[in-house]
Amino acid sequence: MKLRLVPVLLTSLLSAALLFGSFYAYRQFAVHEPLDKIVSAYEGVNHSHITINRNEVTLKLDLKPGTKLRELVQYVNTEGKSAINGRALKLDVDQHSSELLDEYWDKAMFSVAEAMESKKYTLIPAKLDGLKEQFKEYKNVTATTEIDDNNVYVSLSNGEESKFIILPRAAATMGVWNNA
């Protein structure tokens, strides 16, 4: 039996195109698009970009000042459970910070790190509020602290400017906070 080269190559190419095309269509329309609609529908999300890998879902977010990060994570985890499908959810929040907010966080960072290390999370809001009483230039800064099973979320805002900090509760992964 003699195999003809053109029909074999054509069948192989058609099969590969069908296989990879189906995989791409499934990923786009059954996973990525529903998750994008869920994230975009949440109040306070200006823009989002979703990257889905084998082990994690990364949300690159542009948020309005005052957006509750813990509630957003909880909402995405419950509403997008089928799309996330056991993957780890990772947030990358765009910062619209100012020099004042950066300075405020720099002064609070040592106390926050101490509270995180000792697992006394209730000290974090007290330390952030204490800075406003200690330094008059921070009187208009609004500091919000939230917590869930995995992270501590700190939101700082001053009118139109905002800074969102996500601190992992797991001691092994905590180190230099490059997202601060």
SSE run = HEEHHEHHEEE
Q: Termini, distance in Å?
A: 68 Å
Assign an overall shape: elongated
Q: In percent, how much strand structure appears in the residues?
A: 15-25%
Keywords:
alpha+beta; three-stranded antiparallel sheet; 180 residues; three-stranded mixed sheet; 24% strand; single chain
Provide the fold topology:
Elements (H helix, E strand, L loop, with lengths): L4 H37 L3 E8 L3 E8 L5 H11 L1 H4 L3 E6 L5 H19 L5 H12 L7 E6 L3 E8 L2 E8 L12
Parallel strand pairs: 2-3
Antiparallel strand pairs: 1-2, 4-5, 5-6
Helix pairs in contact: 4-5
Structural features, described:
The protein has helices spanning 5-41, 69-79, 81-84, 99-117, 123-134; strands at 45-52, 56-63, 88-93, 142-147, 151-158, 161-168. The chain is 46% helix and 24% strand. Helix 4 (99-117) runs antiparallel to helix 5 (123-134). The radius of gyration is 22 Å and the shape is elongated. It is of the alpha+beta class and 180 residues long.
